[in-house]
């Protein structure tokens, strides 16, 4: 009988992100292409303590007492009726507020780990339903890999992922809260600007993804307004192109920026140079799982 399960929680890149409007519930709709990356947190769920107890430990980062991980555990318990005592341990590596989906991936990792610990009482559709109740990006991370993502992030269409590319990531050590990023975008669009991501529809994204990255016409709706409003993001975007990548951009609502290389050695050299200036900079692989 297992008493602990450890799951990796890889982050994601938005290779493309288009904001398509505001929904009736007040949330914005998106059309995006997500891809998991070898930059990851690690989540361990242990059977510990008395029935109904839930202990959460995280080294190296302050998180609120209630977060995506504890919410995942609560929803899992409600669905399964399994209230064994638990301790969740998070080894945090992915920066928060970076547009990399670290918190969402952590929540999905708790669901997967708990399902294993409890003898797999839930199927994939059950886990996806629970994930939707945790947060917009969490359903994607239940499977990972690559997917076309739309709606608030709850509509996930898995596609065959690529693992032949590497990505250099710079996080400019500034958080970019998603609500604030949407406000900046709305103000920028209301000023008469044209969204560069609007030229590709959801149905175009997979065929674009299959091309050489040097031919990608991907874009991110957030990049122009955030690049103008946040000097650290503008500086990171300027520096990330210095290594001659095949493609570069910003992930999610920022603040992390990335460069895509089809030659991992070239990416590693670029990351080594950029790391002299940027404290958080590394070369990572796109993951097929």
Walk me through the structure.
With 289 residues, the protein is of the alpha+beta class. The chain folds into two domains: 4-158, Ribosomal Protein S5, domain 2, CATH 3.30.230; 166-285, 2-Layer Sandwich (Alpha-Beta Plaits). It contains nine helices and ten strands. The strands form two sheets. Strands 1, 2, 3, 4, 5 and 6 form a six-stranded mixed beta sheet that branches. Strands 8-9-7-10 form a four-stranded antiparallel beta sheet, covered by helices on one side. β3 (54-59), α1 (68-80) and β4 form a beta-alpha-beta unit. The radius of gyration is 19 Å and the shape is globular.
Number of strands: 10
CATH topology of the largest domain: Ribosomal Protein S5, domain 2
Low-confidence stretches: none
Q: Structural class given helices, strands, pairing?
A: alpha+beta
What proportion strand?
25-35%
- The average pLDDT score comes to 95
Q: Could you tell me the radius of gyration in angstroms?
A: 19 Å
Could you give the order of the helices and strands? EEEHEHHHEEEHHHHEEHE
Q: Number of folding domains?
A: 2
Helix content: 25-40%
CATH architecture grouping of the largest domain = 2-Layer Sandwich
CATH hierarchy class name of the largest domain: Alpha Beta
Gross geometry: globular
Q: CA-to-CA gap between the ends? A: 27 Å
Helical stretch count? 9
Largest sheet features: 6 strands, mixed
């Amino acid at each position: 009988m297992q008493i602990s399960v450890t799951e990796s929680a890889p982050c994601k890149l938005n290779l493309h992100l288009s904001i398509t409007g505001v929904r009736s519930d007040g949330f914005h709709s998106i059309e995006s292409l997500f891809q998991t990356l070898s930059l990851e947190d690690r989540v361990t769920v242990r059977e510990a303590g008395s029935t109904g107890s839930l202990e959460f430990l995280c080294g190296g980062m302050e998180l609120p007492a209630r977060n995506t991980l504890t919410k995942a555990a609560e929803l899992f318990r409600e669905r399964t009726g399994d209230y064994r005592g638990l301790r969740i341990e998070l080894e945090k590596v992915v920066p928060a507020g970076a547009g990399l989906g670290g918190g969402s991936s952590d929540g999905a990792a708790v669901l997967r780990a708990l399902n294993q610990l409890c003898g797999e009482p839930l199927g994939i559709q059950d886990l996806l339903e629970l994930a939707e109740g945790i947060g917009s990006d969490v359903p994607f991370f239940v499977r990972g890999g690559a997917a076309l993502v739309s709606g608030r992030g709850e509509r996930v269409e898995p596609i065959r992922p690529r693992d032949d590319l590497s990505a250099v990531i710079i996080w400019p050590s500034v958080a970019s809260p998603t609500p604030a990023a949407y406000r900046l975008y709305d103000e920028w669009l209301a000023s008469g600007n044209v969204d560069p991501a609007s030229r590709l529809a959801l149905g175009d994204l997979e065929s674009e993804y299959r091309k050489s990255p040097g031919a990608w016409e991907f874009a991110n709706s957030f990049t122009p307004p955030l690049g103008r409003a946040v000097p650290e993001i503008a500086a990171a975007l300027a520096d990330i192109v210095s290594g001659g990548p095949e493609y570069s951009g910003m992930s999610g609502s920022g603040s992390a920026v990335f460069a895509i290389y089809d030659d991992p050695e070239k990416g590693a050299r670029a990351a080594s140079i950029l790391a002299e200036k940027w404290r958080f900079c590394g070369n990572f692989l796109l993951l097929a799982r």
